Structure to design on (230 residues):
């Protein structure tokens, strides 16, 4: 168990460019979550997957954002036509399926995006 | 809609003193409650959680939190802090209906001084 990994750890891009982040969850975890964290704020939920199915998307997730988990393993988060307001830390987490209650979400180190 | 309020953005305290980090939530449905900790340059880690049963929950490193339904609170306490407890602490809720997304507060930075 190597934990949740995210790549890249840092990304600097110019406004208007597209960026893609990758998340590799803990191998046996069915659920994968994306959150966004800006300075001075707590993480905000963006979307989550159960295996390859995207089960919920936040209203924060504009049309410029798209997430995939094609084979139920790793996931990618793409932001098209980036804006300065997209600058944030993007966090990925994974967990086992819930039983009677939710299971612990294990977080990755995050990808810090800076849009110039 | 659910929300979480952490009124204290920063809590400075001397080593070996007691500390309380406050967390209040609003929800029209039952919730599950969590405290996550983020040490400098590290990812979020689960500290403790309340799912059901006893309203007092404890972590392995001496923290405890009490679920108070009438006051919609889940305050985090430690009777004697160490310098190594310096970190950002986030309270979070998960509504108990068919989703386990987390809704976080804005965080409280605990700074422990020698």
């Amino acid at each position: 168990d190597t934990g949740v990994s995210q790549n890249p750890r840092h990304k600097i891009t110019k406004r208007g460019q597209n960026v893609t982040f990758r998340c590799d969850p803990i191998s046996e975890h069915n659920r994968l979550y994306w959150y966004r964290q800006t300075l001075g704020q707590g993480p905000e939920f963006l979307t989550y997957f159960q295996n390859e199915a995207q089960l919920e998307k936040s209203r924060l997730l504009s049309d410029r954002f798209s997430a995939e988990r094609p084979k139920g393993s790793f996931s990618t988060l793409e932001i098209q036509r980036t804006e300065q307001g997209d600058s944030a830390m993007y966090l990925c987490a994974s967990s086992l399926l819930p039983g009677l209650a939710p299971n612990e979400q294990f977080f990755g180190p995050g990808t810090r995006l800076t849009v110039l | 809609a659910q929300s979480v309020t952490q009124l204290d953005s920063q809590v400075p305290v001397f080593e070996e003193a007691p500390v309380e980090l406050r967390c209040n939530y609003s929800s029209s449905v039952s919730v599950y409650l969590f405290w996550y900790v983020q040490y400098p340059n590290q990812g979020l880690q689960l500290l403790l959680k309340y799912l059901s049963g006893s309203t007092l929950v404890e972590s392995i490193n001496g923290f405890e939190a009490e679920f108070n339904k009438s006051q919609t609170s889940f305050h985090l306490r430690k009777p004697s802090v160490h310098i190594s407890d310096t970190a950002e602490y986030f309270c979070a809720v998960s509504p108990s209906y068919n989703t386990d997304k987390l809704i976080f507060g804005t965080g409280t930075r605990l700074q422990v001084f020698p």
Observations:
- Chain B has no helices and twelve strands.
